[in-house]
Amino acid sequence: MKTGKELILATKPFAKEIRSESWKHTIVAFVLLLSFLFGTLLLPGFLPKLLCSIGAGLMVIRTFIIYHDYLHHSILNKSPLARVIFSIFGVYTLAPVSIWKRSHDYHHKHNSKLFSASIGSYPIATKKKFLSMTARERRAYLATRHPITMLFGYITMFVIGMCLNSFLSSPRKHWDSLLALLLHLTASVLLFYFGGWQAWFLTAFLPFFLAFSVGAYLFYAQHNFPGVTFSSNTEWTYESAALESSSFMVMGPVLNWITANIGYHHIHHINARIPFYRLPEVMAAIPELQQAKRTSLSPRDMKKCIKLKVWDPERNQLIPLTLVNR
Q1: What is the mean predicted confidence (pLDDT) over 140-161?
Q2: Most distant pair of Cα atoms in the chain: their distance
Q3: In the chain, how many domains are there?
Q4: Domain that holds residue 122
Q5: Are strands 317-319 and 310-312 parallel, antiparallel or unpaired?
Q6: N-terminal to C-terminal alpha carbon distance within the chain
Q7: Which pTM value belongs to this model?
């Protein structure tokens, strides 16, 4: 059985893109996204427009994960055209390159560490830390992990977190966050003024609301699920964080396509240079990766994940609030 660095090395042959495949997936994603967005404006009747709006939201999810792969240098690396396309897309989705890459790279290097900053991750408190918090601190901590915060990820995580907070923290480094926010607000106002509430709602609001709420939950459940492991900084290793603290989210072929295989998250954390379209191939080829901790988008599994709030070192479990005082 391969473990540790040996397992990481076993994935190395798959960390090579097929350039034509990368471009094919990128072009198709952008063409579909733009087609749906134009459909929300040009098609007659509310129902066709609504269906296009939902389609646009789903394509924002897929295109965002392709963008995420590009910033991991797993696809289209060193392509000037791709750099322009994805830089524009990052601004469009309120996740400009400067802040997304910095926060997400930090997440990969520190995922599941108990005593590190919660940059790019949901914060996690130990039982001892949680019990020592003031009532106000507890409310703030629980609010960041609340399902309503995920549902309104468009505002909480992207408008405020990615754009506003990043710019205020470092204006020179994250000037593109302010640019993204200003362009987004300007486009929304113009759509509302010239097209009315329907154009604004279907073209500017609903696609982002849908995409970011789904994305916020996916990111949460891939690192906050029954059986997840968190470690002290001294005991932490990259490979154990990937296999023990990142889930394999079981989905059907349609959802796997929409989410660009992000459900194979444990493999992505083992080697982020593997293109998203090769992740199923890696899992099929390496038996050790087939033993991943699993969750799904079933209501039952979602409820289990959302209930988890605090890390209990004695139980070696992420526990719900009902067990904190026991």
Answers
A1: 96
A2: 62
A3: 1
A4: 17-323
A5: antiparallel
A6: 38
A7: 0.94
